[in-house]
């Protein structure tokens, strides 16, 4: 059985995008983790493709299949006790409260938690163009994440804000 | 309290989703990966035991290990009822759906002022399970796997037989390449492979293009010759000596040896002071200095394995002790006592005899001895139900 290499760093680090999360949750690649009880139900792929056919659908960058990238708005994420200007770096009180609005009238309350053990986000390494198809599989660690945004309770109804 | 003033981040879901796995990192591994120059890790699984090629390889794998250069962890997939989403900041390059559903626009399609759309986090993947790493208590027991990949060497006849067959493909005659290829098939880290390699006195015969493991008989034969040669040449095995000189003492008048030099070096390396196993793949031994304790134990156990491999073939105790003494350099004869042997490598089937306990039997014994009760309470405490039920299943069988 051939061994599969797991590279400790990503081969092509993703382009830097302005990261709106609090400093503590920012990682070099921008990736972050959000844990929910249950799942986010999104209309199936066919549906969103139908929607798209009406409008223009530019293929997003970094998409290996060339399939159109489509973002479905779900809600808003809020760190009510955090302010980039006024929260001291060693202040952790803001971590106790995070809101996730789903649609307009539901809100989940959660918190930012330090993971008991850091999690490595692993993906299949993208093959270089021209590499043989039967080239062996390689994996890479894209990011190591130490915190997660955690919503353990169900959504509660709220007024439109 | 108003949340109006707080910053809102638009949260979206990106389709198609990407494939990620989440791997929990124990502290030592996390530290290793955070270092300036982290090594490439390896994911290894055992070679399927069935030789039939039509069986899909995936079903025959029973475990997968993650290896650093020096350590091995077993990977276990843990399902979770919660879903972990991987988020990344959105670059705004993709098309968005109807923002009105979340109240980001007002009735007249004017954007709500406090929601800055460039501040977007998007979910790009969902993981329903994580991968946990743990180190099995019973160890990895890789020696049988390693031995399975090697030819059994009892005497030089084995070599001539296997080369006469012609069925052997000689891929490479480079020693280093051969060893690396072998280690790729052993599902633990290279350091652990190298230790096991040294432990069983494995060696490569470059001409045959493969690795060999000597039988206990062959090892005893080589060692006996070493002791005799040392006496003839006046080499004191208790001090540092030149390996080349010792090798010359083993050759006859025509410069021919009964054993291959590679095997000789493997045996000498086995009884020497433990050095850095990482150097295993480099050049030949020059200077050696034998570790008395290690040597006495190894000689006793190897001789016992050769003379009395099973309880049925047990030998008399005093007979064994005398033979053991005869296989040691003169000054070490008194060292040969039963207390020097590893506890679980020998047993006394009746009051006068002694026999060897093979690795296989030892594993069986260990499994029976493992206290299932304590394991299940530990499992309950850690709320690790996986472990708890595993033990119950085993008891039923």
UniProtKB/TrEMBL annotation, chain A:
InterPro entries: Ctf8 (IPR018607)
Low complexity bias (residue ranges): 46-68
Keyword Nucleus attached: yes
Superkingdom of origin organism: Eukaryota
Keywords: Cell cycle, DNA replication, DNA-binding, Nucleus
Major localisation: nucleus
One Gene Ontology cellular component annotation held by this UniProt entry: Ctf18 RFC-like complex
GO BP of this protein: DNA replication; mitotic sister chromatid cohesion
Record family assignment: Belongs to the CTF8 family.
Protein name: Sister chromatid cohesion protein Ctf8
Automatic annotation (TrEMBL), chain B:
Lineage: superkingdom: Eukaryota
Pfam families per UniProt: Dcc1
Ranges for region Disordered: 33-59, 367-397
Cross-referenced InterPro entries: Dcc1
Family affiliation: Belongs to the DCC1 family.
The protein, known as: Sister chromatid cohesion protein Dcc1
Chain intervals with Low complexity compositional bias: 45-58
């Amino acid at each position: 059985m051939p061994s599969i290499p797991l590279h400790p760093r990503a081969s092509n680090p993703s382009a830097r995008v302005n990261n709106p999360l609090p400093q503590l949750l920012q990682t070099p690649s921008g990736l972050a983790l959000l844990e929910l009880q249950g799942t986010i139900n999104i209309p199936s792929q066919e549906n969103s493709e139908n929607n798209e056919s009406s409008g223009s659908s530019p293929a997003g960058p970094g998409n290996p299949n060339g399939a159109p990238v489509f973002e479905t708005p779900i809600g808003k994420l809020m760190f009510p006790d955090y302010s980039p200007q006024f929260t001291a770096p060693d202040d952790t009180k803001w971590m106790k409260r995070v809101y996730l609005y789903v649609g307009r009238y539901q809100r989940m309350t959660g918190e930012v938690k330090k993971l008991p053990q850091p999690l490595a986000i692993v993906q299949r390494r993208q093959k270089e163009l021209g590499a043989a198809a039967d080239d062996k599989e390689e994996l890479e660690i894209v990011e190591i994440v130490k915190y997660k945004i955690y919503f353990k309770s169900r959504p509660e109804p709220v007024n439109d804000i | 309290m108003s949340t109006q003033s707080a910053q809102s981040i638009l949260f979206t879901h990106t389709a198609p989703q990407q494939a990620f796995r989440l791997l929990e990192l124990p502290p030592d591994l996390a530290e290793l990966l955070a270092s300036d120059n982290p090594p490439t890790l390896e994911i290894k699984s055992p070679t399927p035991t069935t030789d039939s090629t039509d069986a899909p390889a995936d079903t025959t794998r029973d475990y997968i290990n993650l290896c650093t250069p020096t350590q091995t962890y077993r990977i276990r997939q843990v399902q979770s009822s919660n879903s972990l989403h991987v988020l990344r900041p959105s670059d705004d390059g993709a098309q968005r759906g109807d923002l009105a559903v979340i109240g980001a626009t007002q009735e007249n399609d004017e954007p709500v002022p406090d929601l800055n759309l460039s501040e977007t986090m998007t979910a790009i993947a969902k993981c329903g399970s994580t991968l946990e790493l743990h180190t099995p208590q019973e160890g990895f027991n890789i020696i049988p796997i390693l031995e399975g990949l090697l030819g059994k060497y009892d005497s030089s006849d084995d070599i001539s037989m296997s080369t006469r067959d012609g069925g052997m493909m000689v891929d490479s005659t480079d020693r280093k390449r051969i060893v690396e290829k072998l280690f790729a098939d052993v599902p633990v880290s290279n350091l652990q492979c190298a230790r096991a390699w040294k432990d069983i006195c494995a060696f490569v015969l470059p001409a045959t293009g493969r690795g060999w493991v000597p039988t206990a008989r062959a090892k005893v034969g080589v060692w006996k010759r070493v002791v005799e040669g040392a006496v003839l040449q006046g080499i004191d095995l208790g001090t540092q000596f030149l390996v080349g000189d010792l090798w010359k003492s083993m050759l006859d008048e025509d410069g021919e040896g009964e054993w291959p030099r590679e095997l000789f070096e493997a045996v000498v390396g086995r009884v020497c002071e433990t050095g850095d196993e990482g150097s295993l793949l480099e050049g030949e031994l020059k200077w050696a200095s034998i570790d008395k304790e290690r040597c006495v134990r190894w000689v006793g156990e190897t001789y016992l394995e050769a003379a009395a491999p099973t309880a049925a073939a047990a030998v008399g105790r005093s007979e064994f002790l005398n033979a053991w003494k005869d296989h040691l350099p003169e000054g070490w004869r008194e060292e040969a006592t039963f207390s020097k042997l590893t506890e679980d490598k020998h047993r006394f089937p009746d009051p006068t005899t002694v026999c060897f306990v093979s690795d296989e039997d030892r594993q069986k014994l260990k499994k029976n001895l493992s206290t299932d009760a304590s394991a299940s309470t530990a499992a309950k405490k850690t709320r690790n139900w996986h472990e708890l039920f595993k033990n119950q299943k085993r008891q039923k069988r």
